[in-house]
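Input chain follows. Return structure tokens only.
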Amino acid sequence: MAAFGKLQAALAAATNEVTVAAANINFDFTLVKYEAPKEFRPIEGYLTTTRKQDAETGNSHVVARRLGALFSGICPDSPNLIGAYGARVSEISKTATQKVSQEYSKSIFASYVGVDATSIWAAATSSTTAIHVHLLACMLAELWDASEATSIWAELVAERRKEISYRLEQEEALHFGLASAAVQQEITRDQLASWDASARA
């Protein structure tokens, strides 16, 4: 019996060490890009090259990945909601693209002509949680003006990071991505403001 107790204690200590080590690893998960769910894929064709690059490898992608990782595990699985949201934003993007004036498509503003679905595409190529977070961004944009919505985002991010840090201090076993999200570089207010602005578009 004493040997079994020692084995349990050794396993518990090893688990705690792995959890703490995971929190200390500085893996930049923002470099990862996922394939967008099929309902969102038409959006890719409506984006300008500049917006597509930002959504897939730029600042918008980084913010979407970080927010998705930070809020991982909060939203329940909702494939029907994700599917309906993707179909609707694809439909809106198509309609808006058809209304774009062609006179600007060859001007110096060509990279900014058309639909600004940057944050939607960034979320869709980041994670399912990032899509949930983007839907929340749209709701906040509808209810509050830009500065208030950005402040709400800053508060949500700060509180979530505090919660994850507390859970780590309590030696709770957390998913690697969630632990990494809490210790990653801060999501700045400017990044949150850009996220909000794109959700408003």
